[in-house]
Design goal:
The chain is α/β, with parallel strands linked by helices. It is built from 16 helices and 29 strands.
Length: 617
């Protein structure tokens, strides 16, 4: 069953932030809810502060021997879970109020980390939350006691493991992270098998400690928290650039594909007026709502509901970036981000169709020993500019079937297991297309595969320009291979006449070899959207593009095709820029525009979206 696109925000009460349960104020909550509920917010991600809800402390006898555990310093616990009755009562009341307003709550269970501060029960200070048996004991008690006490409330939509639980301690290996995730997820399901389990983690990787595949194995929905500022080197351009505007879309697709589960943009934000003004922040959320909706994310939640300028407790006195992130000004007026959510909410409730999944044109295979996320992200951006859409895969997983495969910016001799490479070559031999851009990889039987002969190689950094068709592009590399064509067609050469891009017939298939790491180069390229590097992808995918019902030559547009049946489809064209553009949508022969659902075929305003329905003539 198709899910609704989830719209909402992360919530701490306006009067108290992370202290809201200690400083419970029902009137403040209701005032917040009045504003949020009238502006399209339906989902709230909320947090029972672990420090407050399970305030367990150790008591010691002679020679530091542990005597017993108590709560709120020296009080005997009233329940076997060491939960605070007052806090539980307040959370229950919160759920009742949320139901009145029609909110659906995503509850972050083990919230021991928030906004740069640890909030742990005193008994667990300096313990490893993932491996220490005392910590695990109290985590399981918390989960059982909290869920048993709260699962009766209809407002609770799903259980979240907790806020960015991978920040609470140090996990030294992926086995630790995997085991902890399994223990927590199994405990949640044992106490409530009726609700979904959402990850709540961010910053997961293909083969690091906290792995996307592992989270996908245990949870029902993956999560990402994509803030352009914290993406560092990957979002070099401003908040009006296609790279920055596609950040959340690419990372949610990356996680969904590698984890094989749907993915929620669970936190997103511009981090306040030092990053961009409020009008641009409104446009930022608008384009991210449409982009993630069109590209398969399950929803988008802003961080967070309220400004927190007036709050003085840690972490707010530590981190100024935590104070101006809300959707509501301190004077209780709506920010542009909240008004845009209202507009999107009203729009999506009134459309008369469900958007099928977007078609995918090729598989981007991430390999070992390179910057997997950076390469995936840049490939996603270049693909969007080329008007194609990618599926991601990692080499420890089964490679999906496709007509086109990308091996972007491959690196080192161990880029992928030989048996997988042989399987991939067989698919190419039988008719698929393969693209390889090379950083410093050792590729077995390279000449047989590419029709290019390597004469020499060195670690000489060089860069320059070259022609691809009528376009002038740039290249840059730190590992140089001097090659000559041995049966391959040379599409581009460097200034010395050395082939840069070749095309070779391999069996029934085609192999494109690019003699520099296109995606690695894109990571460090400023103002990426103004380059024409995406034309390399247009060449590789040209046969797939011919199959598309709609195409465009506008480099600021991303276009997705959503097939309803063999005779009709929806086309979504998103303007990832602050410019008014001429979309120049070309409809394939044999099809016509049945109706324009949103926007205009004549021009697309900045940060806006064109949606059309097409049908066979």
């Amino acid at each position: 069953m198709k899910m609704d696109f989830m719209l909402g925000c992360n919530y701490w009460a306006s009067n108290a932030g992370t202290e809201m349960w200690r400083k419970w104020d029902e009137a403040a909550v209701r005032e917040d809810f009045d504003i949020l509920s009238s502006n399209g917010v339906e989902y709230l991600r909320v947090f029972p502060n672990w420090r407050d809800f399970q305030p367990v402390s150790p008591l010691f006898s002679a020679n530091g021997r542990l005597k017993e555990y108590r709560v709120n310093e020296d009080k005997l616990p009233t329940n076997k879970y060491y939960l605070d009755d007052v806090m539980m009562e307040r959370f229950g009341r919160f759920c009742e109020i949320a139901e009145e307003y029609g909110f659906k709550l995503i509850v972050g269970l083990i919230t021991g980390w928030m906004s740069g501060r640890l909030f742990l029960p005193p008994a667990l200070y300096e313990k490893n939350i993932y491996t220490d048996t005392t910590a695990l004991m109290f985590e399981l008690k918390f989960i059982e006691g909290f869920i048993q006490g709260m699962k009766k409330y209809p407002a609770i939509y799903a259980w979240d493991l907790g806020n960015e639980c991978n920040c609470m301690s140090e996990a030294n290996d992926y086995q630790t992270a995997d085991t902890w995730t399994g223990i927590i997820c199994n405990a949640i399901r044992a106490n409530d098998p009726t609700r979904s389990v959402i990850s709540g983690l961010s910053g997961m990787t293909a083969d690091g400690v906290w792995r996307i595949e592992s989270q996908g194995a245990y949870t029902d929905m993956l999560t990402v928290h994509p803030y352009p500022y914290f993406a560092g080197k990957y979002t070099k351009d401003g908040y009006t650039s296609i790279r920055t505007l596609l950040h959340a879309t690419c990372v949610s697709k990356y996680n969904a594909d590698l984890g094989n589960k749907p993915c929620l943009v669970e936190e997103i934000g511009t981090l306040g007026p030092m990053m961009c003004d409020d009008e641009l922040a409104g446009n930022f959320i608008k384009i991210n709502m449409f982009s993630n909706w069109a590209n398969g994310a399950t929803g988008l939640l802003w961080w967070c509901a309220n400004e927190q300028i007036m709050l003085k407790e840690p972490p707010y006195c530590w981190n100024m970036c935590e104070t101006e992130l809300g959707m509501i000004y301190k004077n209780r007026k709506e920010k542009p981000v909240l008004l845009e959510m209202k507009k999107f909410s009203d729009w999506i409730k009134n459309i008369d169709f469900e958007l099928p999944e977007a078609i995918e044109d090729g598989v981007c295979i991430l390999t070992k020993d390179n910057d997997q996320w950076g390469v995936a992200y840049m490939a996603g951006v270049l693909a969007k500019q080329a008007k194609v859409n990618l599926k991601y895969a990692y080499i420890n997983q089964e490679i999906p079937q496709s007509d086109v495969y990308l091996l972007p910016s491959v690196h080192t001799p161990s880029m992928m297991p030989s048996y997988m490479f042989e399987e991939l070559k067989e698919r190419i031999y039988n008719g698929a297309t393969l693209y390889i851009s090379n950083n410093n990889a050792t590729i077995s039987e390279f000449e047989e595969l590419t029709g290019a002969h390597i004469i020499d190689s060195d670690f000489a950094t060089d860069s320059g320009s070259f022609k691809l068709g009528d376009d002038t592009l740039r290249y840059s590399r730190s590992r140089r291979h001097i090659i000559s064509a041995n049966g391959s067609q040379v599409l581009s050469k460097d200034e010395n006449g050395v082939p840069l891009i070749t095309k070779y017939k391999y069996g029934k298939g085609i192999v494109y070899y690019v003699n520099f790491p296109v995606e690695d180069m894109a990571i460090v390229t400023e103002n990426l959207q103004e380059t024409k590097q995406y034309e390399i992808y247009r060449e590789v995918f040209k046969e797939k593009i011919k199959e598309h019902i709609a195409d465009s030559d506008c480099k600021y547009l991303g276009v997705t095709q959503h097939n309803v049946d063999e005779n009709s489809a929806y086309i979504v064209a998103i303007n990832y820029s602050d410019k008014t553009v001429i979309p120049n949508i070309k409809i394939k022969d044999g099809y016509t525009v049945k109706r324009i659902i949103r926007g205009s075929l004549e021009q697309i305003e900045p940060f806006e979206t064109l949606i059309i329905e097409v049908k066979k003539v």
